[in-house]
Amino acid sequence: MENKKLIVTDLDGTALQSWESLDPKTKEALMKAKEEGHIVVIATGRPARASLHFYKELGLDTPIINFNGAYIHHPEDDSFEDILAQIPTEVIITLFDSELQNYIVNAFCEYKDHLYVLHQGDTIRDWFHIDTCTSVKFGPFKETLDEHPNGFLLETKKGMAEEVMAFLREHYSDIITCRNWDGDNDNIIEVFKSDTNKATAIEKLAKYYNIEPKDIIAFGDGDNDIEMLMYAGVGVAMDNAIDKLKEAANTTTKSNKESGVAHYLEQYILTK
């Protein structure tokens, strides 16, 4: 088809109406875009185990981007070679033996669907989907880590997130990048290899599909979507997006609660 697009969508706050469900109109629009010959890809900070059910619900047959680009794999094609960004285990061990341990409540390292939890306790949240992990190990990372992780999450003590990120940037900026979450979860910091973001991931997939950046449309709502929206030919921020993302985007659509992804696709991409 002429003018084939690579349509990349974030999940939470974008294609999802809630933590557990796709927005129905967005689901319909993305499936129609696929039927019309466009390439639809999910790019999320979630692990594979917490996103593949949405992939299957959309009937996708493309690679999926997890951990904000640290893990790219193809659930439907075994010949596709996984693309992984990994933080050396020795860096993790050194980091958690440092003064950092005084400022955190818990930490969670992930490699594909293997989870490593620093402290076993009630700080573990539902969004880790522990029951569906390939494996879960608890305890000091110097004893449990048997893979170089794709990334890790830190749960800091309240009010300590900025101090922890300053520490990471001062001592580890050549190796890792970090950012904290928004709203009530602003004490959660995600950490990945320094060159990891959704933009570098979709650049790899654009080359895989021979799609030029001008033909990429990307949808997002959060801080971890900024690079992706800036890389895409058209970066679309949700109305519920943070201000920083709206400033980086080419345009804004309706909120995820108002089927914003579907609204944009119906206006500009899908045939009537």
Provide structural commentary.
α2 runs parallel beside α10. The strands form 4 sheets. This protein has a 6-stranded mixed beta sheet, covered by helices on one side. The chain is an alpha/beta fold. The model has no long low-confidence stretch (mean pLDDT 95). It starts with 5 loop residues before the first strand and ends with a helix. It is built from 10 helices and 16 strands.
CATH topology of the largest domain: Rossmann fold
| Largest β-sheet summary | 6 strands, mixed
**Beta-strand segment tally:** 16
Quickly count the helices. 10
Proportion of residues in β-strands:
15-25%
Number of domains: 2
Report helical residue fraction: 25-40%
Kindly report the name of the CATH homologous superfamily of the largest domain. HAD superfamily/HAD-like
Helix/strand structural class: alpha/beta
Instruction: Identify low-pLDDT runs.
Output: none
SSE order in H/E notation?
Answer: EHEEHEHEEEHEEEHEHEEHEHEHEH
- C-alpha-based Rg, rounded: 18 Å
Largest sheet strand order: 10-9-8-11-13-12
Pfam families: Hydrolase_3 (PF08282)
Protein name: Cof-type HAD-IIB family hydrolase
GO molecular function, one term: phosphatase activity
Keywords: Hydrolase
Features:
272 residues, alpha/beta, Rossmann fold, Hypothetical Protein, Haloacid Dehalogenase-like Hydrolase, Chain: A, domain 2, 2 domains, 5-stranded parallel beta sheet, globular
